[in-house]
Amino acid sequence: MNIFRLAADISHAVAIVLLLYKIWTSRSCAGLSLKSQSLYVAVFVSRYLDIFRFVSFYNTFMKLFFIIGSSATVYLMAFKFKHTYQKENDSFPVLYLILPCIAMAFVLPYEYNPVEILWTFSIWQESVAIFPQLFMVQKTGEAESITSHYLFALGSYRGLYILNWIYRYVVEDHVDWISIVAGVIQTVLYCDFFYLYITRVIKGRKLDLPA
Predict the structure, then answer these.
(1) Which of 35, 125, 179, 186 could join 101 via S-S bond, C-beta 3.0 to 4.6 A?
(2) Which residues of the chain have pLDDT under 70?
(3) Domain map of the chain by residue range?
């Protein structure tokens, strides 16, 4: 554990809390992609198959939090507040994301066993899971402030993990190329959003995309 990984985990947890807060207080999931949230459930379930192998309280708690938090988000969107879900705007074809990730999991795992293949799938899938949400924002041309804060916290989590990998390489001589490449891909997806967030949302303006 290092400060960059801790900050990344906190940023990730804040993103999930912000999303649940937004849905529960507004009683609406308008503007949110159920496809993205469902992909995140698949990411965490496939990654944390070792959840019952105790490493530390922190490790177990965070794994449970990510699985339960993402599952609760999907439940609220798909069932409790489904009448507010804008299905017509959540139209990105997710098979274009899932199938390449499955292929990469079988082609480039560190070891050929079910747990390692599922872990590899989860890394690649997480790198593109946000794409339906970003596509939805692009399609509608705007995002509520709290949705923007959620996306910024989620993007910051990946950016901080890049610093974590740099730190581990320098201090521990540890390199995880799958996580690094997938993390860079995910961070690049956020670049335009980061610019708009800094130039608009932080200044108190609504995140409206340029025409």
Answers:
(1) 125
(2) 141-146, 192-211
(3) 3-208
